[in-house]
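User: Predict Helix-turn-helix transcriptional regulator's structure from this.
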Amino acid sequence: MGLKLDRFIREKDVLGLTSLSRTTLWREVKRGRFPKPIAISAGRVGWRESALAAWQLNPEQWKAPETTEAA
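Assistant:
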């Protein structure tokens, strides 16, 4: 049984997959209505493929998962 890793999708490809404009993409991230990107190196971010797939299943109802702060 092999380990299946998520691919990271770059912004340009996210825009192509979703048909969102760059402005709309970042506005929806800020509102918690689109997955947050992950820092993959200095100045580079990407989105987990699985997070994008979850959003694509129901974009109108998708909400960012609640996070808990460590005390």
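The longest strand covers residues 44-48.
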